[in-house]
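Known limitations

Files may contain more than one protein. Parsers should not assume a single record per file. Below, a two-record file is shown to illustrate correct handling: read the sequence, read the token line, then continue until end of file.
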Amino acid sequence: FGTGVTVAYVTTALLAAIVAGLIIGTFELDGYIKDVRITAGGREIATDGGATLSDASGAADAGGCSECGTTATNRTHKERVTAAGEGALSFFRDTLPYIAVGIAIGALIHGAVPAEFLQQIAGPGNPLATPIAALAGAPIYVSISGMLPIAHSLTEAGIPIGTVIAFVIGGAGISIPNLILLNKLFERRLLAIYATTVVTIGITVGVLFNTIFAGLL
């Protein structure tokens, strides 16, 4: 998209994320993070800011336990690699079905949807094109680098740059697999706030880009 669009995208997306984070932070939503406990490196880690782990370590020290907390340091390199591999394989198995569905939908949209239809739905003549684009990225589970070929095809089909940017932000932030994984960590209310924030950022940045770069690209 060129240096100008790239710099503008990075700047606006970063500023939007910071502002959104500051606003959401004022609502004190820490209580909507699930108390998930993960065993890693022989230690139990909780999503409570580390208080559980610190308290446990302090209690062990106070009790004079010489064996507590030494499991991770006593493990061999081979055992560490094996544990990491098992964790990665477990994560892959959990996400594989959603990745497959997302890639299939993305390939279908990319290869089978006529340009005329895209123009009708997401072209400059539709005032709802940017919100639709921000939501349309949800079924597609690919990284930003994987989004770029699709984004390029959309711009080649005449879709405005801001609408494409909204699509990229939505696809990167609220893909269905991402939301399913975040659901394991966030309560539903916090998950809804997160998704709404991402969509709002996508729409805002998209509209801004369509205004700034109208007729320039």
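...continuing to the second record:
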Amino acid sequence: MSWDRVERLLGGGNLERLSHKRVAIVGLGSGGGYVALTLAMSGVGKFVLVDDDDLEESNIVRHVADRRYLGMNKAQAVAELIR
């Protein structure tokens, strides 16, 4: 992935600094999953993801993960997506 655009938006060494930051997200449902994905695409390098719920058919429509992750813990599913 090319980080040129992100680096232009953030400025010089900020992308490098961001890659060493650790972000914790508690709750990876409809909001938290997209926050994690967006932060990962912005260059954040390390995450602590916490959610004790599993991805179910009833909440798949509003989640960042898709049907492949049904039955999986939401934190694990999002972790796989942002790797």
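Parsers that stop after the first record will miss the second one. For reference, the second record is described as follows. The chain has a mean pLDDT of 91.
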